[in-house]
From TrEMBL:
GO terms for cellular component: glutamate-cysteine ligase complex. It is an enzyme of class 6 (ligase). One of its GO terms (biological process) is glutathione biosynthetic process. Keywords: ATP-binding, Glutathione biosynthesis, Ligase, Nucleotide-binding. This is Glutamate--cysteine ligase. It comes from the Eukaryota. Belongs to the glutamate--cysteine ligase type 3 family.
Length: 682
């Protein structure tokens, strides 16, 4: 999320007149950055996570769990607490950071300083996350709890779901039938984003998730909780006239999507080329990790037939006009745009030979003038196209005070567009005036209920990112297949039931499959091909950057792209298929063989990888699968897809107990998960 300015936000009618100004100066700012850092190299691996929380307030007497809208006070309180910690010289960890988020019940936390590549830092992630949660927990009221829930099951129900309660009649930014104005962070940026998306789109956003058809779900399902007769805003007839679909859960506001929580990871790369390589390699991984971390099966009080948040957020910020959505002929707009600003990545950007033009196989509109400007500045075709594609979007929030900037020292206009392109990966140029290098952010995962799981997925992805570099792995499949995988990933129980397009051979031509390491012997080499330069021969104590790239082979076996991939189960992709493909976990294991880890360290790492393996081979449930079965086996559930106040309360109590370790659920988490809770932090 960009910086929060205090200032006067422009309405959409005003802001649109400045769109070209922002784009123009945004590109100038990018070019300044480019001049400054295009040749920067040698940056070490630094990385960090972002964990988002919902503050839930429990009423044990009434058996009710609601969202607590005390974000502002809580953040002030946390700010004071963090300030005190800064003065505490005896503290061993750096002081965490807490950030506001879209929902007025949300918090985000990040480590105080990024992790380095040391194994000690790798193994500190869980404790770091736990420390942050404890800090937040200690600053809340006794009956408030920071839960890492991806979606709040009863957000937008007809009943009372926030504390305090507000009526949605006055939802002046979103015009929602379900969410009050007060659901949104009051900082001007957020209501303005909400209102300007709606104004630009020329209607409310409309999200329809298929309802989960249980034994007694009415068919057809016509949602009795939609206030069909409410005509406060001119758009309201829309709900009646087709925006709300039969057999679906209808949602009509940004808050339904941007009010979700997720888990994000950011990696600093050696240089711009390594960042581009990393970005590309992680693109096909995005949907797979979405499926493995699926954690949001309940929306507006109903069980949905999907398990993930992704399409809800995509729909919740979809500011495309009817012309841009291809519903009307282009007259006032410039492009037909296939996707929302929040969606999976559209373009691979690595300039390496392994990135064949055929992989970028979807329609990707771009701003021709911007592309030409970047090209004539000497930036290569793919990166120019990437930026020119991001820049087809309009800036949504402009503050009158910051329209004029010093383009050589600011990147605000660039970031205005960049950071409202919410894709599965984000390619982040170094910000001016800081020591930070080129970074890649991995953004598809749903937040998990426990810090053990959040740490496990963070550890897995950072290890996979190193395996990618160490073994020069090639994960390319056409972008259209990644898009298809994104849709499959969200289906109910996708990790167990769906197949995903994946590359058959991820090892570069002419190289051997890296051999699995053995934790006990600790002496295996990462590759049978010890002189190929693919992997370091001396074991290292650190996860690092700056791996050599592969030279283009004299002849490339250029078969059909269609022959390079096939449909595989998640189990095959992660655990291996046949003798040629050791699976992503096998590759991570081989990479671990290049590290010098003590048996204890290795054991801890393996605990995390075992969680990923359990999810992938189906022996462990995703949080979504567990939540669905919790609801369906609740004595008060009527098999009609409805998640009542009482079921919601019991579910969230169970979530909290699982997080605290007082409720053990073997189908969800291994018996011995987690480190003991940290005491002594205040
Ligand atoms: P945003 O919300 O814009 O994605 P945040 O500031 O919330 O960004 O989170 C950025 C993450 O990147 C944090 O986990 C932080 O620790 C981490 N980080 C900070 N500096 C670096 C760096 N130089 N390289 C990699 N990661 C970094
Ligand atoms: Mg953040
Ligand atoms: Mg965030
Ligand atoms: Mg982020």
């Amino acid at each position: 999320m960009g910086l929060l300015y205090l200032g006067t936000p422009l309405t959409w009618e005003e802001a649109k007149n400045h769109a070209d100004h922002v784009r123009d100066h945004g590109i100038t700012q990018f070019l300044h950055t480019w001049d400054r850092v295009k040749d920067r190299t040698g940056d070490e691996l630094l990385w960090g996570d972002e964990v988002e929380y919902m503050v839930v307030i429990f009423d044990d007497e009434k058996k009710d769990a609601k969202l607590s809208l005390r974000q502002t006070e809580i953040l002030e309180e946390l700010g004071r607490a963090v300030g005190t910690l800064h003065n505490d010289a005896s503290l061993s960890t750096s002081v965490p950071k807490f950030h506001p988020e879209y929902g007025r019940y949300m918090l985000e936390s990040t480590p105080g300083s990024p992790y380095t590549g040391s194994i000690a830092d790798l193994l500190s992630v869980e404790a770091n996350m736990r420390y942050r949660r404890t800090l937040a927990r200690n600053r809340l009221k006794e009956n408030e709890i920071p839960l890492t829930l991806t979606s709040f099951p009863r957000l937008g129900t007809a009943g009372v779901f926030t504390e305090p309660h507000y009526d949605s009649k006055d939802a002046k930014s979103s015009h929602s039938l379900f969410l009050p104005e007060e659901i949104t962070n009051p900082h001007a940026r957020f209501p303005t984003l909400t209102a300007n998306i709606r104004s630009r789109r020329k209607s409310k956003v409309a999200i329809n998730l298929p309802i989960f058809e249980d034994e007694r779900t009415p068919r057809p399902f016509v949602d009795p909780t939609i206030p069909w007769q409410r005509d406060i805003y001119p758009e309201d007839p829309e709900a009646k006239n087709g925006a709300a679909l039969i057999d679906h859960i209808y949602m009509d506001a940004m808050g339904f999507g941007m009010g979700c929580c997720c888990l994000q990871l950011t990696f600093q790369c050696c240089n711009v080329n390594e960042a581009r390589r990393m970005y590309d390699a992680l693109i096909p991984i995005g949907p797979l990790m979405l499926a493995l971390t699926a954690a949001s099966p309940i929306w507006r009080g109903y069980l949905a037939d999907v398990d993930c948040r992704w399409n809800v957020i995509a729909g919740s910020v979809d500011d495309r006009t009817p012309e841009e959505r291809g519903l009307e002929p282009l007259k006032n707009n410039r492009y037909i745009i296939p996707k929302s600003r929040y969606d999976s990545v559209d373009l691979y950007i690595s300039s390496e030979w392994a990135n064949k033009p055929a992989y970028n196989d979807t329609v990707v509109p771009y701003d021709e003038a911007i592309r030409n400007r970047l090209l004539s500045y000497g930036i290569d075709d793919l990166l120019s196209k990437h930026i020119a594609h991001l820049f087809i979007r309009d800036p949504l929030v402009i503050f009158s005070e910051t329209i004029h900037q010093d383009d050589s020292s600011s990147s605000d206009h660039f970031e205005n567009i960049q950071s409202t392109n919410w894709q599965t990966l984000r390619f982040k140029p170094p910000p001016p005036g800081s020591s930070i290098g080129w970074r890649v952010e991995f953004r598809s995962m749903e937040v998990q209920m426990t810090d053990f799981e959040n740490a496990a997925f963070a550890v897995f992805i950072v290890l996979l990112s190193r395996a990618i570099l160490a073994f020069n792995l090639n994960f390319y499949v056409p972008i259209s297949k990644v898009d298809e995988n994104m849709q499959r990933a969200q289906k109910r129980d996708a990790a167990r039931t769906q197949k995903f397009f994946f590359r058959k051979n991820v090892i570069p031509q002419g190289y051997a499959t890296p051999a699995a390491s053995s934790p006990s012997s600790g002496s295996s080499t990462p590759s049978e091909c010890s002189d190929c330069g693919m992997a370091p021969q001396v074991k290292e104590r650190k996860l690092r950057n700056c791996f050599p790239t592969l030279a283009r082979p004299p002849t490339i076996d250029d078969g059909l792209v269609e022959d390079e991939y096939e449909e595989m189960s998640i189990k095959e992709i992660f655990c291996g298929k046949g003798s040629a493909f050791p699976g992503l976990l096998g590759l991570v294991d081989a990479y671990l063989g290049t590290l010098e880890a003590t048996p204890d360290e290795r054991k801890q790492i393996d605990k995390y990888l075992d969680l990923v393996r359990g999810r992938a081979n189906g022996t462990l449930q995703t949080p979504a699968a567990w939540m669905r079965s919790f609801v369906r086996s609740h004595p008060a559930y009527k098999f009609d897809s409805t998640v009542s106040q009482e079921i919601n309360y019991d579910l969230l109590i169970a979530v909290d107990r699982i997080e605290r370790g007082t409720l053990r659920v073997p189908e969800l988490l291994p018996e011995d998960y987690g480190q003991p809770h940290l005491n002594g932090f205040h």
